[in-house]
């Protein structure tokens, strides 16, 4: 019985071909002529035919032959497919699938009708076609029900004329059935045949064939499924054991580490075990995951058939079919999703008339999309239909007495929408056989919740409805960052993590501040609310293990000495917060396990996982943490304004303080630093007198400031040193320093010295110590001869007068310095008001202004200039230390001609020159 | 009462109903559980605390890939929340409903497995509080002490543990 084996292979193969055919036909309907597609379908049908011929499955051969012929015709004659012909093709496809699935009885099914119809797909005879459809349903029904006992013959021609005359298929059918006394002796057969389906049956044939069939013994049916059914629990167990095996392997590797040399050949054995274990785990994981496509693929057909039935024109768009979910979840999703889709089609999308009236595209759109978010897989079913009428729900709720009018009064719209999930509630005015019976959404909700998921509905009346399924990644693997608080490790899904900020208590540049007892952190111009994980989880709960208590206290002590807080910046939707933890251990791919039911009430966890050391770790749920911390009302924008207010008063710089070879304390603005690399001086190579180092696979020039800037004490730096990689240079260079001392956030105020030495912008006082602020541009210019890119002649530049409005001494000096070094004449104003006065008195060619200034800010200054006829055409360049599109827009509206970043010397110079040329 | 009656029923039919009870000590009192619901006894259990959880829950423990919820049985039986028992004596029970919910608890000292005839398993005395009584399968009078056979699955059901 080798044939049985091969036959199974044939079924599997045919099934994959069938999938190609079905999706192909559906696509054909949308995109009526696509040679590639037709060829694909043709090939698939042809292969089924070929293999079926080998097994002498004559019905399959015949049917596929006819289908093939049709596609041949389409291919040759480029026939446009009508909806009718698509219907027939789909039906014959259904029949073909039934035949393949019941391969043993396939030759007993009768496909005469279908063949006849297929012959005639492109015939213009409408009536004929209509009738044929009816009788094809009979044969279809038959094969679906796997009733091998009844064969329906094909005396179609006889009645087709009558059909044409009457023009009403149903009437004829009934009449016909009445006239011809069809007697079917098997009660089973009768059950499956409705009156109108019996039309045109030749009962003699029927009886005869029936008797033949019943004498045959039923062959064991070969299941068309290529999979072995395995209990999910068994798979879970295997998965667990595989993960444990990984842990066991890790332990084994650790323990045997020191013996590896002593025991011969152990190395190879261990490596082998290592690889096998890894592979085993991967394979086991795979067994459970399936792409959502396996169920999504069925929906185009569902939507197509249903929209026909409802006489609507609906397009289904599917995205994210490759998102993988646990098999058990996928399986349980098919029904709820079908239900939601049906709802969208039936209630959501309006009928053609209504759509036209409301000015919508006649074609309704339903989008089915799946994607990962926040440790969940989200499936959205979005329609652009009528939306849900909340008033209708209210009415229904009152009718059914589910809630009192008083209660309804106090409810938010989304709470009222929740009633949709109430058993027995349907807003459909009339019950159709598609939906509207009021059972369904409650079942859907139950099913989704059983999977540990959630369902949400958002609706806008007249615009559409979105049904969102949030599904957990049970048994899925996610990337998580392992954090520690006190003595305990937690996993945090990386998907929500934006960045990590490290805060030292001593460091004044970044510190946690308070607004109404809430801890906040300033992060690039925004206030970030801080949640301490230990507080959020109320971690004062004392561990009862004496050993642990000791550990914990020692940890706390260490903590205080260390005084480092690590803040994970987490974003959920549009909200952000910082989660303060003690330690971060790096990221890991973790296996998500559901929470034990005993701790399910804790919303701060989304699951558990087992870490590499074999211990359980809780997976944090950022959403739950945020809700628990009551951060919902934290308005990021409101506090930003407050922040901006403060920033206006104190424009501070973050200064990096370091030492070069000498003992001088030096400083530069951190904004100019891209990176600081640790380096060993031995790794610096000298090529023709210049020093180079490796940085990001490139060789970059290393500069010792003491060699460039005059009057610096020169000593040798040996051993460990640091290299500052600055921003704002096209060809990167590195600045060699011996030590990084600190970073300070301060309002730079230069100690009064008349003219600072070359290469130094000035001197500042930090903690009673004098620190020289290095002029980076000076260094760049010395090292890269053509660093400053100016085109205009020096003589021309010398004639140009620039008004610089800037309040911050640091920027006053740095910008003025590099403008002057480029040859321009620069006059300085402290604020907008003063600058305006100077404009009226003096003669300037260009205005360069800071935005944030006391008394009158740059925006107001620009507006005032623009309102004065005299200055309407003067170029104004806005300077900012903050970048952002929003600022830029406001600035341009106020009248700036250009917007430049303060520390980008070349860009600013180029912009100035650009305007000068124009003058 | 019910259990006792069932025991009698079988006894009358000539089948002696015996139960194997795993006994253990909490403080110095002897307790026991039906050995059929015990999955294993684990030594050297490295559990993880679940911050913010109910007091009755000590933490979670990884038993070969299964997450076991550990309960503080001291709290329930002795009202002693400070003590959880020795780290080396952890009784892990078979899951009650499905595979995801294994439970376990620490005991101070493990005793032996005793054969107790249902006949000798008496219902809890009537002066016991209702909640406690519901979690006790019966009390056996041993020669020197009383053995209280508990029903942990009841104890660990939500209505009890959330009260701890």
Across the major sheet of chain A, the strand order is 10-14-15-13-12-11
The gyration radius over C-alpha positions of chain A equals: 39 Å
Largest sheet of chain A: 6 strands, mixed
Q: What is the helical fraction of chain B, as a range of percent?
A: 10-25%
Low-pLDDT sequence parts of chain B: 1-14
Using DSSP, what is the number of strands of chain B?
12
* Poorly predicted parts of chain A: 124-224, 429-439, 541-561, 635-650
Q: What gross morphology of chain B would you assign?
A: globular
User: Topology as H/E string of chain B?
Assistant: HEEEEEEHEEEEHEEHH
Which outline of chain A best applies?
A: globular
Strand order, largest beta sheet of chain B: 9-1-2-12-11-10
Structural class of chain B: alpha+beta
Helix content of chain A: 40-55%
- pLDDT averaged residue by residue of chain B: 77
Terminus-to-terminus distance of chain B = 27 Å
Structural class designation of chain A:
alpha+beta
């Amino acid at each position: 019985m080798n044939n049985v084996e091969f036959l199974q292979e044939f079924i599997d193969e045919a099934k994959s071909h069938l999938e190609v055919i079905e999706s192909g036909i559906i696509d054909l309907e949308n995109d009526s002529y696509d040679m590639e597609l037709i060829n694909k379908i043709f090939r698939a049908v042809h292969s089924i035919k070929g293999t079926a011929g080998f097994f002498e499955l004559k019905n399959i051969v015949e049917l596929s032959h006819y289908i093939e012929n049709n596609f041949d015709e389409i291919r040759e004659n480029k026939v446009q497919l009508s909806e009718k012909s698509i219907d027939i093709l789909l039906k014959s496809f259904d029949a073909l699938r039934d035949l393949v699935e019941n391969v043993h009885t396939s030759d007993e099914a009768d496909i005469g009708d279908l063949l006849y119809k297929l012959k005639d797909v492109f015939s213009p005879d409408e009536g004929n076609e209509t009738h044929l459809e009816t009788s094809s349903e009979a044969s279809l029904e038959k094969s679906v029900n796997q009733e091998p006992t009844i064969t329906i013959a094909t005396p179609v021609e006889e009645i087709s004329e009558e059909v044409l005359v009457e023009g009403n298929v149903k009437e004829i059918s009934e009449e016909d059935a009445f006239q011809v006394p069809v007697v079917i002796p098997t009660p089973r057969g009768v059950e499956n045949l409705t009156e109108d389906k019996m039309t045109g049956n030749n009962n003699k044939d029927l009886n005869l064939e029936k008797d033949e069939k019943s004498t045959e013994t039923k062959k064991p049916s070969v299941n068309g499924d290529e999979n072995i059914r395995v209990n999910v629990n068994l798979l879970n167990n295997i998965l667990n054991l595989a993960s444990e095996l990984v842990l066991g392997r890790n332990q084994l590797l650790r323990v045997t580490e020191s013996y590896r040399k002593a025991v011969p050949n152990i190395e190879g054995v261990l490596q082998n075990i290592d690889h096998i274990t890894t592979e085993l785990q991967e394979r086991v994981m795979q067994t459970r995951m399936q792409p959502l496509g396996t169920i999504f693929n069925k929906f185009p057909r569902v939507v197509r058939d249903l929209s026909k039935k409802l006489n609507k024109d609906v397009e289904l768009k599917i995205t994210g079919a490759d998102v993988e979910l646990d098999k058990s979840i996928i399986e349980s999703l098919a029904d709820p999703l079908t239900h939601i889709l049906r709802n969208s089609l039936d209630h959501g999308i309006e009928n053609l008339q209504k759509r036209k009236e409301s000015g919508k595209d006649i074609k309704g759109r339903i989008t089915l999309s799946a994607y990962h978010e926040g440790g969940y897989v989200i499936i959205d079913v979005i329609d652009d239909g009528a939306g849900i009428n909340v008033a209708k729900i209210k009415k229904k709720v009152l009718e059914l007495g589910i809630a009192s009018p008083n209660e309804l009064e106090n409810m938010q719209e989304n709470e009222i929408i929740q009633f949709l999930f109430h058993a027995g509630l349907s807003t459909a005015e009339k019950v159709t056989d598609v939906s509207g019976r009021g059972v369904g959404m409650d079942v859907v909700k139950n099913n989704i919740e059983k999977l540990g998921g959630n369902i949400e509905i958002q609706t806008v009346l007249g615009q559409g409805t979105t049904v969102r399924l949030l599904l957990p990644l049970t048994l899925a693997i996610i990337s998580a960052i392992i954090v520690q608080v006190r003595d305990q490790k937690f996993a945090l899904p990386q998907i929500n993590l934006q960045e990590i900020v490290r805060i030292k208590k001593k460091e004044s540049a970044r510190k946690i501040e308070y607004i109404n007892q809430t801890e906040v952190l300033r992060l690039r111009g925004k206030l970030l609310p801080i949640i301490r994980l230990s507080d959020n989880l109320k971690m004062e709960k004392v561990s009862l293990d004496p050993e642990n208590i000791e550990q914990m206290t020692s940890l706390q002590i260490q903590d205080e000495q260390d005084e480092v807080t690590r803040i994970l910046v987490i974003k959920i939707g549009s909200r952000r917060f910082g989660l303060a933890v003690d330690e971060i251990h790096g990221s890991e791919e973790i296996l998500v396990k559901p929470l034990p039911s005993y701790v399910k009430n804790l919303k701060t966890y989304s699951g558990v996982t087992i870490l590499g050391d074999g211990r359980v770790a809780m997976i944090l749920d950022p959403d739950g943490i945020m809700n628990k911390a009551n951060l919902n009302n934290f308005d990021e924008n409101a506090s930003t304004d407050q922040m901006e207010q403060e920033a206006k008063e104190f424009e501070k710089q973050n200064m990096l303080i370091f030492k070069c070879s000498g003992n001088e304390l030096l400083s530069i603005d951190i904004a100019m630093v891209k990176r600081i690399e640790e380096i060993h001086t031995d790794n610096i190579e000298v090529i023709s007198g210049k020093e180079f180092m490796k940085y990001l696979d490139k060789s970059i020039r290393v500069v010792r400031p003491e060699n460039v800037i005059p009057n610096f004490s020169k000593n040798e730096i040996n051993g460990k040193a640091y290299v500052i990689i600055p921003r704002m240079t096209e060809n990167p260079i590195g600045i060699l320093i011996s030590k990084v001392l600190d970073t300070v956030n301060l309002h730079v105020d230069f100690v009064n010295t008349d003219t600072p030495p070359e290469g130094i912008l000035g001197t500042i006082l930090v903690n009673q110590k004098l620190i020289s602020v290095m002029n980076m541009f000076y260094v760049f210019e010395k090292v890269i001869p053509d660093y400053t890119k100016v085109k205009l002649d020096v003589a021309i530049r010398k004639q140009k007068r620039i008004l610089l409005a800037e309040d911050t001494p640091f920027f006053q000096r740095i910008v003025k310095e590099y403008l002057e070094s480029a040859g321009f004449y620069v006059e300085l104003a402290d604020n907008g008001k003063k600058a305006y006065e100077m404009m009226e008195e003096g003669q300037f060619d260009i205005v360069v202004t800071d935005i944030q200034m006391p008394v009158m800010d740059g925006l107001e200054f620009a507006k005032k200039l623009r309102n004065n006829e005299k200055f309407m055409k003067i170029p104004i360049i806005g300077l900012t230390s903050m970048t952002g599109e929003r600022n830029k827009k406001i600035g341009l509206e106020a009248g700036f001609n250009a917007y430049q970043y303060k520390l980008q010397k070349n860009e600013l110079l180029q912009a100035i020159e650009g305007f000068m040329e124009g003058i | 009462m019910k259990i006792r009656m069932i025991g009698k029923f079988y006894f009358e039919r000539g089948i002696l109903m015996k139960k194997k009870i795993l006994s253990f000590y909490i403080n110095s009192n002897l307790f026991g559980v039906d050995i059929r619901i015990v999955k294993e006894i684990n030594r050297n259990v490295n559990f993880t605390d679940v911050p913010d959880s109910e007091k009755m829950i000590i933490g979670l423990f990884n038993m070969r890939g299964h997450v076991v919820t550990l309960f503080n049985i001291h709290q329930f039986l002795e009202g002693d929340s400070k003590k959880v028992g020795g780290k080396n004596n952890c009784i892990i029970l078979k899951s009650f409903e499905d595979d995801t919910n294994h439970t376990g608890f620490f005991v101070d000292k493990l005793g032996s497995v005793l054969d107790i005839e249902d006949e000798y398993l008496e219902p809890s005395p009537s002066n016991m509080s209702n909640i406690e009584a519901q979690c006790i399968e019966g009390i056996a009078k041993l020669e020197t002490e009383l053995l209280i056979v508990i029903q942990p699955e009841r104890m660990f059901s939500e209505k009890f543990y959330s009260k701890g």
